[in-house]
Write a structure and sequence with these properties.
homodimer; alpha/beta; 4-stranded parallel beta sheet; 10 helices; 8 strands
Chain lengths: ~240, ~240
């Protein structure tokens, strides 16, 4: 029988999803039925979820696992009374932080992902526009503005990695497609040479692309988009612009 | 003086970043100097970070705050000995989960974001390609495949929201630009009507776009991309395809 898992938040649920998912992947032989419930921000919504959780416990005889990020104390108290295993990621760590910072937290719902931060917003929009306007080599006169230029043959993950870097890090990431010819030539095209320091190769066939020397390569056939992005950011000490 | 914050992981650092950032936003009047260190996966790397953290404590007289997701026990034990405030998001919750599931966790580094899951990878690539191929109304013959069709005037966040939905939820999200004319006409263009149930309006000027009835609108001028995406997903009960 599948174990039911709830991700519950009074905000978007993104944080509860991310950490909860990370924890579950450590139990690879268990099947989970996952339910995400964002914006649980009223007494009635909380009570309705509580009843649903208790109903599932009665039906299955297994305690649902609840990963929560609840800033609102009333909502927190309602749900912590459920028949499930209740883990609140905020509550657990806010206490020690308040003590160390000698401050009370603001208990403001949705500050983490919902904050209207115009700067953040514009950084992200501009980074996405940059990625789109330089996708697949369509525009290389703007390479001086790039934080990263990803090169590689088609279908090696260049476009999604650039978009991921734009959306999640605010990075300006361009990509340029390598042809078989570029690769067998064994050197970078001349117009790319001035930007060598920000070029990263993505490859699904490590041996072949190693023919091009002097630029770092990441083998994407064993990596997720997140991993490729994190690897590039880590290698360059790029300081992310947004969170 | 800025308080130094470390996000340390033996994986990509994405989980540590996400939850740590959520916690910090609850302390809005404190300035933080944030340092992300992913892939801390050897004894030497851990010892080097430990020295850096202790050095900062000596320099500032303030304990650095450490948000960690460390699956490797040796690395965990080295860093938990630092002079900083050490909070490990995995360690804290893995115990209760092991007890409830009556299983030992696999302690596998990088399962959360690094898992090579070809299905996940292809879902994401296909969703990104769908978003790009249907961006800004360029291709509406594929609207039957859409999970969502976002409509709105230019510069209201359609493109980044579609890409965010593709990358983070595996959703097929198209977008179609509304002109002033469409809006003053007060009805959906005829070819969009069959898809009314999956159309969401994004607006920066609520009053004007409310002229178009029968479709839900989200005011994007007060929302982040994550919030817009979470709102759309929540309203439709869309079951995310990837995590």
């Amino acid at each position: 029988m599948k174990r039911t898992v709830y991700y519950i938040s009074d905000g978007t649920g993104i944080t509860a999803n991310t950490l909860g998912r990370s924890l579950l992947t450590q139990f690879e032989h268990v099947s989970f039925e996952e339910i995400t419930v964002p914006y649980v921000n009223t007494h009635d919504k909380a009570v309705s979820i509580l009843k649903e959780i208790n109903g599932i416990y009665q039906r299955d005889g297994l305690k649902p696992i609840i990963f929560a990020t609840l800033v609102n104390k009333e909502i927190h108290d309602i749900l912590s009374d459920s028949k499930g295993i209740f883990m609140d990621f905020f509550k657990t760590f806010i206490g020690p932080l308040e003590e160390e910072l000698e401050l009370k937290s603001t208990h403001t719902v949705g500050r983490s992902h919902g904050l209207l931060d115009y700067n953040n917003y514009m950084l992200r929009i501009n980074a996405v526009n940059y990625a789109l306007s330089t996708d697949d080599g369509i525009n290389y006169k703007d390479y001086d503005k790039a934080d990263f230029i990803l090169v590689g043959v088609s279908r090696c993950g260049k476009t999604p990695t650039c978009l991921y870097l734009a959306l999640n890090f605010g990075a300006y990431a361009a990509n340029y497609p390598f042809t078989e010819e570029d690769i067998s030539h064994g050197d970078l095209p001349a117009f790319l040479k001035p930007f060598r320091h920000k070029i990263y190769g993505l490859t699904i066939e490590a041996q072949r692309l190693n023919l091009i020397r002097h630029i770092p390569f990441i083998n994407t056939s064993t990596r997720s988009i997140e991993e490729i992005a994190a690897e590039i950011v880590a290698r360059t000490n790029f300081k992310r612009r947004i969170y």
